[in-house]
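Bench notes, afternoon.
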Amino acid sequence: MNILSYGLLALVSRTEASGYDLMLKIQPFWQAKHSQIYPLLGSMEEQGLLSAEWIQQADKPDKKLYSITPEGTRKLHEWLSEPTAAPVMRDEFNLKCFCIHLAEPSEVRRMFAERREYHLERMKYYKDIQDAIPTEHRHPGHIGFEDYILLQKAYLRTKASVDWIDWVEQEYGQWTAQP
C-alpha cells in the first residue's frame, strides 16, 4: 500500500465513487494520474479492500463504482495510527526565487505580482467553498468537519504566501530603487 492507495480508500470511505470521480477528488491532496489510479483500484479490489459494482449508463460507457469494504476500513484505521511523513514541497516559484539575483528588477516585481494575484484568487476560491459549508457541518464528528478544517488550512497557507510576498517586495524594494 502506498499513500495514494490510502488516499483513495479515504475518499471511498465517505461515498462510493468511480475511478474518474476519484481521480478528480484526489487532486487537491495528491497529484495522481489516471494511469496510477486505475491499477491501484484494481489491486485494492483484488485484496478485498474495495468492492465494485458495474453501473449501466444509457448514453455513456458503463462505469464501475467502488465502495470500501470492512477490510478496507480496518486498513485505513491502521494507517491513521501510523506516524505521518514530513510534508513534501515542490515549487518552481521557490527555485526561481533562488536565482532572482540574475533577473532585472522589473521581472522580479512582475514575477511576485503574478504570484500574489494567483494566491489572492486561491484565497477567494477556498473562502467561497468554506462559506458554503453549513454551520452544523463545522463540528468534530460531522463528516463535513474534515472539509471545513482542510479548507481553512489551505486558506491560511495561501494567506501566509501573500504575506510573505508582501514582505519580500518590501525587502527587495529597499535594495532596488525604482527609477
